[in-house]
Design brief:
The complex is a heterodimer of chains A (258) and B (374).
Chain A lengths: L4 E12 L2 E13 L4 E5 L6 H8 L7 E6 L2 E2 L8 H8 E4 L11 H11 L4 H14 L15 H14 L4 E5 L7 H17 L3 E5 L11 E6 L2 E2 L2 H33 L1
Parallel strand pairs in A: 3-8, 3-9, 6-7, 7-8
Antiparallel strand pairs in A: 1-2, 1-4, 4-5, 9-10
Helix pairs in contact in A: 3-4, 3-5, 4-5, 5-6
Chain B lengths: L3 H8 L1 H32 L1 H4 L5 E5 L11 E2 L1 H7 L4 E15 L5 E9 L11 E3 L10 E5 L3 H4 L7 E4 L2 E9 L10 E5 H7 L6 E2 L1 E6 L5 H11 L3 E5 H15 L2 H30 L1 H10 L3 H34 L10 H27 L10
Parallel strand pairs in B: 4-9, 6-8
Antiparallel strand pairs in B: 1-11, 1-12, 2-10, 3-4, 3-7, 3-11, 5-8, 6-9, 7-8
Helix pairs in contact in B: 1-11, 2-8, 2-9, 2-11, 2-12, 9-12, 11-12
Classes of the chains: A alpha/beta (258), B alpha+beta (374).
Chain lengths: 258, 374
């Protein structure tokens, strides 16, 4: 059976005048259905570039990207929107909700792109918001929602197309740690329940514990597996303890504010 | 489709107000200028269009109705002898000097007609009748020029080129394109007013017999009567319109002003829709990242432009209706025939959608990868 995402020898070079900037140097990566993978690494390592190419937003310089067995890296630009619409849901760091639409209408927008309109769209939109715990916020506008609520609406929107792949770029960066944990748990549940492949780009080591697998990107390459294993055991475990303590303190502070 | 276009449009009410103001300005300016153009062209050829004549016989090389020169009235009888001519009458149209009660002179255009004829009679009479022209010294003028000529009511007596003129009736809405009002009187009296010799006329108007072919009769007159030109009413009307509108440049000036209104409206709408597009660029990038084709995003922008056009058109036409109504009693009427009103809607729509093309080109080149930049 094909992996949900299969990347082979992927390279990406950005042209800058006569010189080029090599962002990816031959990446190989598989993501299985039902698996949640974190892409981690320093800024400029190529994580977002890799995510963009997997998401058919950027084109590769060379190499192969297969989504559910279908080669997409060599497709013409004008065919890529249809591929994204069919296979991929996106969750963004800044939520990227439409501020003039209600939460329900934000989800309906995705359904509209899939050709689902009217009463069926409203019904499905309501169901998705209930699934992420925001059924009562259907008529609320993004400005009236908290950061965590906005991200949950964004997740509902990403799910509206029933994609088999969810790509998330720093989904917890704008959230406090407690909310961030809730979001990550939600995304993990989504991956496991419907056999979705979830790929998350993050700087935040606190969320790595939710991953089924962590892949480290450095200088445009996937770091070797033994280096991948060392990081979670030696560093992430310690960071995880610090993260739990910080989360506890933040919760106590939030409780006092309320 | 969720109401993204409508919500984006109404989200920033100040920007919407600016957009609508630009469209209203454009609509009103274009309607006024085109309305003036239509009014002017209608006015310039009013004498010809309301003449009830099929053919106009003039001296050679007459460019428009106000610039004819006299010719022998014997040609009237030659014209009457042409096959297909049911009726032919002499008509005078010439400048005269009207003396007001206060001694001031005003230029008028004296129209001498035959009361027995059906052609070139005063129309839209609101007081008196064409038959009243048979009375001694009788003249009929339009009520809108009462103040200019110092007239208060029918029965008053004035002078035209030193000869008595008694006002016996008024028309409504007969404008002169020049500053000289029309004054209707009998042919004989007109000859005296404008010092035209007894054996001269300015025009001969022809009505065709039923079933006669206008071109055949026209050629018949040309071959039978020497040193004249013969035009159909339609031809003479267009010649007169063309002269006043384009040879003098008056029409060009009006049309240029209308074009200016269109350009201003286009620029204002283009700017505000572009600014709105830039404000929502991240959303359009998100739409593209989600998999929306470019045409989906274009639809949002065009819907905004179309809604702006519809609202601006309605508001603009309301203002225009007031302006048009107010102009009816003035010297220069602004006309708004219904085809022009309908055409204005489509022009407004085209203006706004065209202005949106600037934004569409921006969105076309938008890289959906921008949504990943925090």
């Amino acid at each position: 059976m094909h992996p949900a995402i299969a990347v082979r020898k992927l390279t990406k070079t950005y042209s800058q005048g006569e010189a080029g900037v090599v962002a990816l140097r031959g990446v190989d990566l598989d993501v299985r259905a039902g698996e949640m993978v974190m892409l981690m690494g320093p800024s400029g390592s190529g994580k977002t570039t890799l995510l963009s190419i997997m998401g058919c937003i950027l084109s590769a310089t060379s190499g192969s990207v297969q989504l559910a067995g279908r080669e997409v890296a060599s497709l013409p630009q004008k065919q890529l929107p249809a591929v994204r619409l069919e296979h991929i849901g996106f969750v963004f760091q800044g939520f990227n909700l439409f501020p003039t639409l209600t939460a329900g209408e934000n989800v309906e927008l995705m359904l509209d792109l899939k050709g689902i309109r009217g009463a069926p769209a409203k019904k499905r939109s309501q169901e998705l918001l209930e699934q992420v715990g925001l059924g009562e916020k259907y008529n609320g506008f993004p400005d009236d929602l908290s950061g965590g609520q906005k991200q949950r609406v964004a997740i509902a929107r990403a799910l509206a197309g029933d994609p088999k792949i969810i790509l998330a770029d720093e989904p917890t960066a704008a959230l406090d740690s407690h909310t961030g944990r809730n979001i990550m748990q939600m995304m993990k549940d989504l991956a496991h329940q419907r056999d979705r492949a979830v790929v998350i780009v993050t700087h935040d080591p606190r969320v790595a514990e939710f991953a089924d697998r962590t892949v480290r990107i450095e200088d445009g390459l996937v770091a070797p597996p033994r280096e991948q294993a060392a990081v979670p055991v030696e560093l992430l475990a310690r960071q995880s303890e610090n993260f739990k303590l910080a989360a506890q303190l933040e919760s106590q502070a939030a409780g006092r504010m309320l | 489709m969720p109401p993204l276009a409508q919500r984006n449009l109404f989200h920033d009410k100040i920007r919407l107000t600016v957009t609508l103001t630009g469209i209203v300005f454009a609509v009103v300016l274009i309607v006024v200028e085109l309305g003036l153009f239509v009014g002017f062209t209608t006015t310039t050829s009013g004498l010809v269009d309301h003449s009830q004549a099929d053919l106009w016989v003039t001296s050679r090389r007459v460019p428009y109705v106000e610039l004819a020169v006299p010719f022998s009235e014997r040609k009237l009888y030659q014209v009457r002898a042409v096959a297909g001519v049911a009726e032919a009458q002499k008509v005078i149209s010439r400048w005269g000097q009207w003396k007001r009660a206060d001694g001031r002179d005003e230029s008028v255009q004296v129209l001498g007609v035959s009361p027995e004829s059906s052609m070139e009679q005063p129309w839209n009479l609101v007081q008196g009748s064409a038959d009243d022209l048979r009375k001694p010294d009788a003249v009929i003028m339009d009520e809108m020029y009462k103040e200019k000529l110092g007239v208060h009511h029918a029965g008053e007596i004035f002078e035209i080129n030193g000869r008595r003129a008694r006002v016996v009736g008024f028309t409504r809405g007969i404008r002169s394109f020049t500053t000289s009002p029309y004054v209707f009187t009998t042919f004989k009296r007109a000859q005296e007013y404008v010092n035209l010799p007894d054996d001269q006329t300015i025009f001969v108007l022809v009505k065709l017999a039923p079933g006669a072919n206008v071109e055949q009769v026209r050629q018949g007159i040309l071959s039978s009567v020497a040193n004249v030109d013969v035009f159909t009413s339609r031809q003479f009307s267009h010649m007169t319109q063309f002269y006043w509108m384009f040879t003098t440049g008056a029409g060009v000036a009006v049309l240029l002003a209308a074009l200016l209104g269109l350009v201003v409206g286009f620029v204002v709408v283009a700017q505000t829709i572009y600014a709105t597009t830039m404000d929502h660029l991240r959303e359009y990038g998100t739409l593209k990242a989600m998999g929306a084709p470019n045409t989906y995003v274009y639809k949002v922008i065009i819907q905004q432009a179309a809604m702006s056009a519809a609202m601006g058109y309605v508001l603009g036409m309301i203002v225009s209706a007031f302006v048009v109504h107010a102009s009816q009693s003035g010297g220069a009427a602004i006309l708004l025939p219904w085809p022009m009103a309908v055409g204005m809607f489509f022009l407004t729509l085209a203006m706004c959608v065209g202005a949106a093309l600037v934004s569409i080109s921006k969105v076309t080149s938008l890289d959906p990868a921008m949504v990943f930049k925090g």
